[in-house]
Amino acid sequence: MGSFSNPPMFSLIIPAYNEESYLPRLLDSVDKAIDCYAGGAGSIDVIVADNGSTDSTAELAQARGCWVVSEDKRVIAAVRNAGAKHARGNILVFVDADSIIHPDTFNAINRSLATDKVIGGSSGVRLERFSFGIALAYMLMVPMVWLTGLDTGVVFCRRDDFESIGGYNEELLFAEDAHFLWNLKLLGRKRGQKLVRVRSIKAIASTRKFDTHGDWHYPKLILRVGYELIFSRGSMDSIARKYWYGDQRAKLTGEDLEDP
């Protein structure tokens, strides 16, 4: 991992809650990306923002040379912001703990931000496995990505721009990443800058939600979320807490996903 002696160019921020099973493979991929970075290992530091883990996540991260910061608020946006608050890099990079990043990640981000025509962007993802049900879920998301230019995976921007839009919205229990990129896109539009998708460095995303809830659960979830957002915010919060914040991660019942 990067040295803490001099200010780095990049700060990679990893929000984590009970991620001892997934974090090692992510950090292995981070090590490879750091080795491949033309600017040298000292240009990158790695921050694990621990969200009150009850397993060995924090100890594992420290043993791997990461800077560990704590955030007790059980809202993913707050955890991302906590990592950014302690970051020293001029470029902030965010990735989920159950991902694997591409070896050329930091080189590609550096190339993208070398011009003032780009405000930030994302890498997109490939899923670690596919099935018909997962493919359907993927297809449901693709039109939104095409229409908005927003994507997931590795997300990056300059620190100043992160602060200009106020970071991640801590009022949101989910979709905070899309909201963040949308605000970044709007800021860039005012300046004549664009939000980019650097698909050459797609991250690999785990399918643990499909492993937990079933390969065909996503269409039902989308319908349920849409209904609750319109008619019952309190019930939506309950579903969000269970799906995104459960104990690694709580399984939704058929009743949770059924239309009212």
Q: Which SSEs are present, and which pair or pack?
A:
Blueprint: E1 10-16, H1 23-36, E2 44-50, H2 57-63, E3 67-70, H3 76-85, E4 91-94, E5 99-100, H4 105-113, E6 118-122, E7 125-127, H5 132-148, E8 155-158, H6 159-164, H7 176-191, E9 194-197, E10 203-205, H8 208-213, H9 217-231, H10 233-245, H11 254-257
Parallel strand pairs: 1-2, 1-4, 2-3, 6-9, 7-10
Antiparallel strand pairs: 4-8, 5-10, 6-8
Protein model, in words:
With 260 residues, the protein is an alpha/beta fold. The protein folds into two domains: 10-134 and 149-206, Spore Coat Polysaccharide Biosynthesis Protein SpsA, Chain A (Alpha-Beta Complex), CATH 3.90.550.10; 211-257, no CATH class. The chain is 45% helix and 17% strand. It has helices spanning 23-36, 57-63, 76-85, 105-113, 132-148, 159-164, 176-191, 208-213, 217-231, 233-245, 254-257; strands at 10-16, 44-50, 67-70, 91-94, 99-100, 118-122, 125-127, 155-158, 194-197, 203-205. The strands form two sheets. The protein has a seven-stranded mixed β-sheet, with helices on both faces. Helix 9 (217-231) packs antiparallel against helix 10 (233-245). It is globular. The mean pLDDT is 90.
